[in-house]
Amino acid sequence: MCGIIGYIGPKNIVPLLIDGLKKLEYRGYDSAGIAVVDSGKLYLQRVKGKINELESTLEGETVSGQYGLGHTRWATHGRPSEENAHPHRDCTGSIVVVHNGIIENYLTLKKMLREEGHEFVSETDTEVIAHLIEKYFEDKLEVAVQKALKELEGDFAISAISTKDKEKIVAAKSGPPAVVGIGEGEYLISSDINPLLSHTQDVVFLEDGEMAIIRKDGVEFRDFDGKPLDKPAERLAWNPLMIEKRGYKHFMLKEIFEQPQVLRDTFEGRISLDSGTVNLGEIEISPTNLREISRVVIIACGTSYHAALMGRYLIETLARVSVDVEYASEYRYRDFILDQNSLVVVVSQSGETADTLAALRAVKKGNPLTLAICNVINSSIARESLGVLSTHAGPEIGVAATKTFSAQMAALALLAIHLAQIKKTIDSQESLALIQDLQRIPHKIEMILNEADIVEKLAWDFVPFSHFLYLGRWINFPIALEGALKLKEISYMHAEGYAGGEMKHGPIALIDEKMPTMAIVPKDRVYDKMLSNISEIKARVGHILAVAFQEDEDIRDRVDDVIPIPSTNQLFTPFLTTVPLQLFAYYIAAIRGADVDQPRNLAKSVTVE
Ligand code: M6R
Predict the structure, then answer these.
(1) Span 517-529, pLDDT tens digits
(2) Between 3.40.720.10, 3.40.50.10490, 3.90.550.10, 3.30.300.30, what CATH number should domain 245-335+391-447 receive?
């Protein structure tokens, strides 16, 4: 969703802000803008559309400056337009604000401010912040911001500058993320760490209710009441190279190809072939507590929800604990029942998804054990959960989640084996065999990736279609859902994922020659059932592509096309069946000329409800 970048220091500020905005593009946006103060004079430029359009409008300008803000806007209040794009100004044009989130009481504030004589020029909720700061401004920007914050209801991360209180950026957080970058004689503020990496790896994450007053010679932290805070910087493990395309046409393709390494990194230090065990001491939930668990509830959204669904099969099968998987956006409003023996696992790549965070906060009132599976260290969900199991996927820039999905499944597989060991539902030999199978997965994914051209060739045949059905059963049912989501997200083709056994209860009515089916058919406990489902589709002249084990010769007579994958333990087939579906969605979208990394209307991290 919206992205904020701010800078104060000696570098050439306009290109720096533009570069920062480009690194925030993946979050999703529909307009962009910058504001820079140069020798006390404010320079502001905004556009509806992409950052390269903003860049074009800046061509030939000779603006430099000492401090400034940039913003990518994902419209919530007011259509995408130049007037609604950020930064926003007060009546005097001396106070400038950028904002991520929603000000829920903005209509009340707008009415009040209008009655006091303020004039509004946009339809946004953000503009009220600029006018509130104007109302309270005397001589210090931070004091005015602090007073304005008291009036705001909702979720927000803001940054403000002024030409009247120079060389200062004031940032505040109550909801969406905000991180301060501490460089050598320069400071930055950003919505995430990606734009900071090329300047510094030393950062301070703001917590809710905290402000940063950033000057060219240092940063001061305070709470919303003005009380000083001591917040030491921490060093990031991510580096700037991780957010480059490195020769790939799209980030999504690069991230699909990174999956073998991501899985190795996620297993590293957590599995031991010598002892045949999974060691998750890092999660800070003791084996004694885990042994007592009688129920697991996994909460997530989107692709993370699909990983959670897959994790359910693993945990139930291996650890013999009952698992419920819930959409965070629904669960947060349920009168749910949890007891002290429940383990609540929240799965989120970004760790900032508003619904997942709200569901976590709601469940915490009942005091169950909470465990976050997150990719972004120090994200809100990671910080607010009792334990954290990090997915070591590195930064994911493509809006469509790929490598983080595999990493989430890997983390859930480790959790399932860990629980099973603690609960003694598997013996040491079974544990060792599972770990050995898991360890072979990255190489098997490499084998699939080496034959990506098979999937690319097939993709060309299906570009003209408008609808697609994805079928899977048992542990591959979530993969059918995920495969369909990938195709929808990036190619804008209508795709539905179904459990094979559900076909005859309705969806089979859709089958004709215009509705192809992607069937996920590894040799597992439901293989024969899937074959029956395939026959039912074939009888209705539906075209079928199957993802199947390469040694499965029988399947070739039953379907039209086969994407072969290596065989593996049936519990781990999703790691392999996922990859061709990601590639298939990618190639279809790329052939169609779609904006693969930044699909329309989507945001990487959904920080508003
Ligand atoms: O950051 P999260 O994992 O919490 O995000 C959840 C969803 O918004 C996300 O998975 C979304 O569905 C992606 N676009 C999937 O490709």
Answers:
(1) 999 999 999 999 9
(2) 3.40.50.10490
Using the atom order of ligand 1, give the atom closest to the CA of residue 301.
6
Range scoring the smallest mean pLDDT among 204-208, 439-443, 515-519, 598-602: 598-602
pLDDT exceeds cutoff 90 at 604? no
CB 72 within 8 A of CB 51: yes
Closest ligand 1 atom to residue 356 Cα is 4
Residue 1 has pLDDT above 80, yes or no: no
What per-residue confidence (pLDDT) applies to 9? 95
Residue 316: pLDDT over 80: yes
pLDDT at 602: 87
**Nearest CA to 548 among 571, 511, 573?**
573
Distance of alpha carbon 36 from alpha carbon 68, whole angstroms: 4
CATH class of 3-241: alpha beta
The arithmetic mean of pLDDT across residues 352-380, rounded, is 92
Q: 239: which residues sit within 8 A by CB, 6+ positions away?
A: 197, 201
Judge: domain 451-596, CATH 3.10.25.10: no
Whole-angstrom Cα distance, residue 517 to residue 482?
14
Cα–Cα distance measured from residue 449 to residue 453, given in angstroms and rounded to the nearest whole number: 9
Residues whose beta carbon lies within 6 Å of some atom of ligand 1: 301-304, 348-350, 353, 356, 399-401, 489, 602, 605-606
Dist. CA 407 → ligand 1 center (Å): 13
Domain ranges, ordered by start, for the chain: 3-241, 245-335+391-447, 451-596
